[in-house]
Amino acid sequence: MTSKQEQSPAAAAIPSAVRNYIDGEWVAAEGDDVQPVVNPATGETLVDITYSNTETVDETVEKAADAFDDWRATSPVKRVQYLFDLKQELEDRQEDIAQALTREHGKTLAEARGEIRRGIENVEVAAGIPNMLREGSGNVEGIATNMDEHAVRQPLGVFTAITPFNFPAMIPLWFLPYAVATGNSFILKPSEKVPLSSQLIFEAIDAVNFPDGVVNLVNGGADTVNALLEHDDIAGVSFVGSTPVAQYIYETAAKHGKRVQAQGGAKNYAVATDSAELDQAVPNIIGSAYGNAGQRCLANDVLVGVGDVYDDLRAEVLDAIDDLTVGNGLDEETDVGPLITGESADRVLEMIDDAIDEGAELVVDGRDFEHPDYPEGYFLGPTLLEGVTTDMDIAQTEIFGPVMCLAEADDLDEAIEMVNSTEYGNASSLYTERGNEARKYRYEVDAGNIGINVGVCAPLGFFHFGGRKGSFFGDLHAQGEDAVNFYTDKTIEIQRWYS
Ligand code: NAD
């Protein structure tokens, strides 16, 4: 054990290898590219990951395609029994998953536990698929003489999901339960930076005993993704990640004739008016901007004070930042964990410096933060900039770090114009006690998710989840009824019987 490992509090057991799960078996990944998976709080290497090569992808798709015929013929009522069992297996393992998640990602244990609950929620919602499959299918009897017409939902084959680093346990579960409950087989390609939570989720899947080949895990990087995108037997692709990659996935998958839903990056503003209940709003604003160390697609990293509220808002934000504790997510008192990599921390530092060059004022400076116990960790202290205007790069580019920008607007119209100035449309929040302001905001802000006095407006599993503009490429979003529509197609059956 290295000295760094000794510094990690409550070091729970984590998987000792990153393996693939193909056709019901755990197998070592094959490929030439081997990379370390690093605990961002300590800099320690947790395990190595091998990026799967094209042959492995081909074999996995073949096994998943073989499994499809029988799985499709299994009744939805029986299919969801596996999900009921999976829910229980995940419930039983949630603390182990949370510990692994915190160690590979850096988020706090409380955040990790909350994330797993949101993932399990999707398993629960997808367990209602027999009922959801009925919706949207019409039956018209006697449409002409002796003639009936029905619309019947059918699964499409093998689906894959390619997921990002920031919610390693939850985001795979936005897709996996819906894809398999609707009768498809499925391949997960998790982020190569955080493969450990998926190992534990697939241990739960293995315990549930899905028929071989129905649910598969392939670890890897961009080449692994490309092999999936180009494979003839992949019917559809779900993606979550940064906007340039989302756009690439959308175009490439579509070019290869696949269904595709690609969720991209974000630039989310929060706005507070003079009617906001600041005592309630400010903790919420802080949680949104600095929670998950700002590495959240729903994080509001710009806060606009409208008119007179600005000075009080600024003062309360400063007090709240003062109370934040930065550290290893395994320490229960930590509020803000590290960034995922040293490169991420450098990128955010550069954004702060550029913003200062462009005229923003640094009010809280977290740039030189060093944790005495974790000198190798990729930490940044909470940072606050003010005087930020929409022509600055930092007002238009996703920060994905523990940095918030303060801006001012004379009225709500100006604030909404600022919110809508970015190329993204994932989320936005308004803090107000006035119904007419809330209504105007909901109506005029061009974003897929709007929070009124809610800073992280993540929809529950039975609603769809997705953004607009540069935050989403495709038509049907993740979760809920959109997931059912994405993972099935409707066949029209017209029947005539002569006697
Ligand atoms: P990323 O785009 O770097 O990686 C996401 C996935 O794409 C990974 O599995 C990775 O292996 C793969 N990938 C990366 N580069 C690729 C390439 N050139 N070709 C093919 N595949 C490639 O994203 P990330 O850094 O892991 O995640 C952070 C981003 O995800 C942020 O922009 C965040 O806003 C976004 N995000 C969006 C949502 C949403 O719901 N819209 C949710 C979570 C995260």
UniProtKB/TrEMBL annotation:
InterPro entries: Ald_DH/histidinol_DH, Ald_DH_C, Ald_DH_CS_CYS, Ald_DH_N, Aldehyde_DH_dom, MeMal-semiAld_DH
Oxidoreductase among keywords: yes
A Pfam cross-reference name: Aldedh
Highest taxon of source: Archaea
Class of the enzyme per the UniProt entry, highest EC level: oxidoreductase
Aldehyde dehydrogenase domain residues: 26-489
Keywords for the protein's UniProt record, in alphabetical order: NAD, Oxidoreductase
EC numbers on record: 1.2.1.27
Protein name, entry field: methylmalonate-semialdehyde dehydrogenase (CoA acylating)
